[in-house]
Amino acid sequence: MHELSIVMSIIEIATKQMEGADASIIEEIELEIGALSGVEENSFEFAWNQAVKNTPLKNAIRKIHKPEGIATCLDCMIDFSIQQLYDPCPVCGGHFLNIKNGKELKVKSLVVN
Amino acid sequence: MCATCGCDGQDHVHGKRIVDVEQDILHQNNLLAERNRGYFEAKNILALNLVSSPGSGKTTLLERTLTDLKGQLDFCVIEGDQQTTNDADRIHATGTKVTQINTGKGCHLDSQMISHALQGLKPKENSIMFIENVGNLVCPAMFDLGEKERVVIISVTEGDDKPLKYPDMFFSSTLCIVNKTDLLPYVPFSIEKVKENALKINKDLHIIEVSCTNGDGLQEWYSWLKSKVLAPETV
Ligand SMILES: Nc1nc2c(ncn2[C@@H]2O[C@H](COP(=O)(O)OP(=O)(O)O)[C@@H](O)[C@H]2O)c(=O)[nH]1
Ligand SMILES: [Mg+2]
Ligand SMILES: [Zn+2]
Ligand SMILES: [Zn+2]
Ligand SMILES: [Zn+2]
Q1: What residues does ligand 1 touch, defined as CB less than 6 Å away?
Q2: Is B104 left (phi over 0), alpha (psi -120 to 50) or beta?
Q3: Average of per-residue pLDDT across A41-63
Q4: What is the pLDDT of residue B2?
Q5: What are chain A's domains?
Q6: What is the C-alpha separation between B193 and B160, in angstroms, rounded?
Q7: Do B138 and A111 touch (CB under 8 A)?
Q8: Which of B55, B153, B166, B219 has the greatest CB tally within 10 Å of its CB?
Q9: What is the pLDDT of residue A44?
């Protein structure tokens, strides 16, 4: 379950930033987890609840943005939304695609105190 | 005077405030992966990250390759395994330098483990470094190790819809090896279907069919390896 590694990295990044801001608790955390990022929601939830105990993120409110998957068909040069990496271009049915959006995996901001 | 702790308010800030972070969650892993990549490039080492489900034949493919190409190319191996040293022992038996990373509960290798392993292994210049990842088609997809190419292995006993079930792995690999073709007569597996499915996810994926048991297709794999070693940008 790589979601646990992901959560551990989030805790590390957030704790460092909190300390850098001379604060001791994190009240809110804003994340960006794209629809094509490979993070499974239930596993993430489970890992989160296990891992944030005894960390400054313990009681933090989470705001998660989930950018949708958007691909460009390199034959038709049009953009369209995709749910899966193997979705075809709706115009030509091809798979000659560039993923433009949806792979994000980021800590965007914190509210600290 | 500050109402929170009674200080004069000059040393630190109090109260709620927003910290802009904008940091990639895999940043730390990616940084170390780039460092590993730099190490490999400086020594002209071809690092390959081998990923598959458990039992697809990663270790068997390595055993064959290390034996068949002995004397033609220099190799060393990093074995990722959750518990045992079985795979490392099998590699060691071929006379190849090998180091074992026990990941315990961890379901993937990460760039820090590789960086650590490299310190003990000291691979030769101009060699090929095989990294056998933990048997798992999900987690290793997200963790760059600093490899030059990622090789995904699937066997014909696994079902030809595997690429669709684990798209991230096929998306992030450059070569797909379809192994155990000797078993094709006994299983409902279509080579055409698996190719079609894999190419839907990654139009640039190179596919090689092999059987480690009877040796079919291995020459093509060896040619691929040699072409990568001799590629102008790595000389
Ligand atoms: N029939 C057949 N069996 C194979 C082939 N390659 C590997 N195996 C068997 O598949 C099993 C798992 O192989 P192993 O290399 O340990 O897989 P790994 O978990 O990916 O390292 C072993 O019993 C191998 O002997 C092949 O080409 N054909
Ligand atoms: Mg193995
Ligand atoms: Zn995992
Ligand atoms: Zn199109
Ligand atoms: Zn104060």
Answers
A1: B 52, 54-60, 135, 179-180, 182-183, 211-213
A2: left
A3: 95
A4: 63
A5: 2-112 (3.30.2320.80)
A6: 6
A7: no
A8: B153
A9: 94
